[in-house]
Amino acid sequence: MTGAAGFIGSTLCDRLLSLGWQVRGVDAFVDYYDVSIKRRNLQRALRCDAFQLCDADLRTVPLEPLLDGVDVVFHLAAQPGVRTSWAEGFAAYDDHNVRMTQRLLEAVRAQPSTRMVFASSSSVYGNPPRVPTTEADPTRPFSPYGVTKLAGEHLCRAYSDNFGVIVTVLRYFTVYGPRQRPDMAIHRLVESARLGTPFTLFGDGSQVRDFTFVDDVVAANLAAAAAEAAPTDPVNVAGGSSTTLLELVNIVGDAVGQPVPVEWLPAQPGDVARTGGDVHRAASLLGWSPAVTLEQGVARQVEWHRATLV
Ligand SMILES: NC(=O)c1ccc[n+]([C@@H]2O[C@H](COP(=O)([O-])OP(=O)(O)OC[C@H]3O[C@@H](n4cnc5c(N)ncnc54)[C@H](O)[C@@H]3O)[C@@H](O)[C@H]2O)c1
Known about the structure:
Elements: H1 7-18, E1 23-27, H2 35-41, H3 43-46, E2 51-55, H4 63-67, E3 72-75, H5 90-109, E4 115-121, H6 144-163, E5 166-172, E6 175-176, H7 185-195, E7 199-202, E8 208-210, E9 212-213, H8 214-226, E10 235-237, E11 242-244, H9 245-256, E12 262-265, H10 280-286, H11 294-308
Parallel strand pairs: 1-2, 3-4, 4-5, 5-10, 6-9, 7-12
Antiparallel strand pairs: 8-11
Helix pairs in contact: 1-8, 5-6, 7-9, 7-11, 9-11
Nicotinamide-adenine-dinucleotide (NAD) binds next to helix 1, strand 1, helix 5 and strand 4.
């Protein structure tokens, strides 16, 4: 598991451990956000004998020993976030999302029995011509972050086509739930409602997002790892809850029981108008479809904020 201390990675770790897997988790504890949050994410996993933590940077660490005995590589390590991927910020995205993925693919190539599941993103679509967007629709990223995730996908394809590396690309649509990154909208909304501090809303609030609950993303990863024939084309992993940001402000306010104070700021470069994923391919190739509605998922995230954050 790469990116094991992150939001989604740590949740996937816990699930794999509960299913009896042996998990080797790798994370460099990158300070994109407070690293004490990442340490907290791993508390449960670290209590488990079947979990081994490697505090290592995948851009430089020797990979062969890390992959020794590994059946499945869940590759979630990345520099996330759209807004900081412009200007000089881009170098980190290139390094962590493109070069690191290529380095890992080289190592996986040397172990033909190992398969990989790659965490890609709906950001590869940019502003899609239609919603719900299918995997056959054009990819035209609207941000440098999206460009690096698409480059990662193309690298997976090139290693698969040339060397037979077994790799499944999952395109996650905005993921939320317990442990969500503090820079993400639902996390910021819940904290604003709880503390009565303003939520900075970029744009006019009409932007639509397809939100996917983290347990559903975990289930899609498990299905990809177990699939007898690993899909060779990318697969959308979307929650099916296309909602405007303004609607979301109300949903979170209702779940917390207090309204969200909003401070309006102009739209940010790279933010797309609309995302929404068609999940027919996931259903037919992986037997996966989302199970958690936005209202249920937000309630579970609010519960986590109350239990975990001061
Ligand atoms: N959260 C979402 O809504 C979303 C949507 C689409 C795709 N994704 C993808 O899912 C994956 C996980 O996202 P997340 O939200 O959990 O992010 P996250 O930042 O919480 O987790 C990523 C982890 O990777 C680690 N990492 C980064 N570079 C590393 C390196 N060189 N070596 C070792 N570890 C390194 C970080 O320290 C971090 O803990 C990412 O690949 C992201 O692009 C996330």
